[in-house]
Design goal:
By secondary structure, the protein is of the alpha/beta class. The chain has 2 domains: about 110 residues, Urease, subunit C, domain 1 (Roll); about 290 residues, Metal-dependent hydrolases (TIM Barrel, Alpha-Beta Barrel), CATH 3.20.20. The two termini are about 30 Å apart. The model has no long low-confidence stretch (mean pLDDT about 95). The structure holds ligand LTUXU72L and zinc ion (ZN). InterPro entries: Amidohydro-rel (IPR006680), Deaminase_MtaD/DadD (IPR023512), Metal-dep_hydrolase_composite (IPR011059), Metal_Hydrolase (IPR032466), MTA/SAH_deaminase (IPR050287).
């Protein structure tokens, strides 16, 4: 790690106004100084100097809801509604995935995330020890939950696996890995099981990561079966007494929005997945107005179909305007806050990451602004949200370590990952052919 000095960049700290010709000093894993040139203490000597005159620095993006290893199922099942997509395509294929498949699918996801500026993500899937291993190796930060399905007779066994993940991996990778328990959804976890999971999480001192109110059908079915909507059921069972990260929250009443705000539930808004599965459009403007902590997630690459948080920010802002008929909702700064600080808060990490401030962990990205589609920079934040692309990210630093410099990922072998994924993704289905130039 050591000392890194980033010189002459435009800084978007999120916590305050944009700083032109700024300087960022990093000391091991933390930000030592963020501000105008001249503010670095005299005699402070860097081991690495990054000349960043062409760059915009901002906090690393936080993908608040994904299933990383679903990169293996990218373009495997498209143009279907959620229930059919899950029941007829995804779950039968997932049942055949082995631990090593998930490890390599996650590696591919991490490579995609690093290259598009995500430094932290919340993940819910199976074989999460393999995910944790991949995260520790790649250098990213992640909040990991074993996905728990309570129906069938293996709910107890799955919960035990989730508990082991917490005990064995919480704090791993110099604190970069944190954990939660991940009850999948009220339609796959009966109330007694949700209660048991919540009690277990309380005992472990961790939060919950759950899919909630994603489709109209879910709301109607859960209400018909249990007498409560998904949000009301989760509240009644005490889930919201714990830190809860709720993915989607598309179909909500005004009362439920107020409840999510009161209980400080972190909402992972996944606009592109919701659009593609035609699940609906989450009431983001209303949630923000009511004080709900709304973050942004991509969901998995099988429903998005990418993990590009720069694109997701843009979709989030545009969709909120389109659906309300009000162009003033979710302005650029708000979209950036959602993709950084709100994401950090939803994962319980707001004291450590989410803004560029001295004392916080050194998780940041540099975006190359010297490109035709980012000129002129009348408003840097607007350019980042409305004009930038994930591929504009040049440099990624997590916990004070450079993971990507000048577009080159330092901690991963892309050729090996592509070869492994091509071998595993089509197993038992179809054969993929790897071009010679992609072979490891
Ligand atoms: C139990 S591990 C996670 C589980 O969630 C599935 N999944 C992926 N995307 C969605 C979504 O949008 N709604 C509900 N469930 C989803 C994934 O395939 C895994 O089985
Ligand atoms: Zn999901």
């Amino acid at each position: 790690m050591g000392k890194i000095l980033i010189k002459d960049c435009t800084i978007v700290p999120i916590s305050g106004p944009v700083i032109e010709e700024g300087v960022i000093a990093i000391n091991d894993d933390r930000l030592h100084y963020v501000g105008p040139a001249g503010g670095v203490p005299a005699g402070w000597q860097a081991d690495t100097v990054i000349e960043a005159g062409d760059m915009v620095a901002l906090p690393g993006l936080v993908n608040s809801h994904t299933h990383a290893a679903m990169t293996l199922l990218r373009s495997f099942a498209d143009d279907l509604p959620l229930k059919q997509w899950l029941e007829e395509k995804i779950w039968p294929r997932e049942a055949k995935l082995e631990r090593e498949d998930i490890y390599w699918g996650t590696k591919l996801a991490l490579l995609e995330m690093i290259r598009s500026g995500t430094t932290t993500f919340a993940d819910m899937y199976f074989h999460m020890d393999a995910v944790a291993e991949a995260v520790v190796e790649a250098g990213l930060r992640a909040c990991l939950s074993q996905g728990l399905i309570g129906f069938q007779d293996r709910g107890g066994q799955r919960l035990a696996t989730g508990v082991s993940l917490v005990k064995e991996w919480h704090g791993a990778g110099d604190g970069r890995v944190t954990t939660m328990l991940g009850p999948h959804a009220p339609y796959t976890c009966p109330p007694e099981y949700l209660t048991k999971v919540a009690e277990t999480a309380a005992g472990l001192g961790v939060g919950l990561h759950i899919h909630l109110a994603e489709t109209k059908e879910e709301v109607e079915n859960v209400r018909a079966q249990y007498g409560y909507t998904p949000v009301a059921l989760a509240a009644k069972l005490g889930l919201f007494e714990l830190p809860t990260l709720a993915a989607h929250c598309v179909h909500l009443t005004t009362e439920e929005i107020a409840l999510l705000a009161e209980k400080k539930v972190g909402v992972a808004h996944c606009p592109e997945s919701n659009l593609k599965l035609a699940s609906g459009v989450a009431p983001v403007a209303a949630m923000l107005a009511a004080g709900v902590n709304v973050a942004i997630g991509t969901d998995g690459a099988a429903s998005n179909n990418n993990l590009d948080m720069v694109a997701e920010m843009r979709t989030c802002a545009l969709l909120a305007k389109g659906i309300t008929g009000d162009p003033t909702v979710v302005p650029a700064h708000q979209a950036l806050v959602m993709a950084t600080l709100n994401g950090a808060r939803a994962l319980g990490l707001e004291k450590e990451i989410g803004t560029l401030e001295a004392g916080k962990k050194a998780d940041l990205i540099l975006v190359n602004k010297h490109q035709p589609h980012l000129m002129p920079p009348h408003d840097v934040e607007a350019n980042l949200v409305y004009a930038a692309r994930g591929s504009d990210v040049d440099t990624v630093i997590v916990n004070g370590k450079i993971l990507m410099a000048a577009g080159e990922v330092k901690t991963m072998d892309a050729g090996e990952i592509y070869a492994q994924v091509m071998k595993r993704a089509g197993r038992g289905q179809k054969k993929f052919h790897l071009l010679p130039r992609l072979r490891g």
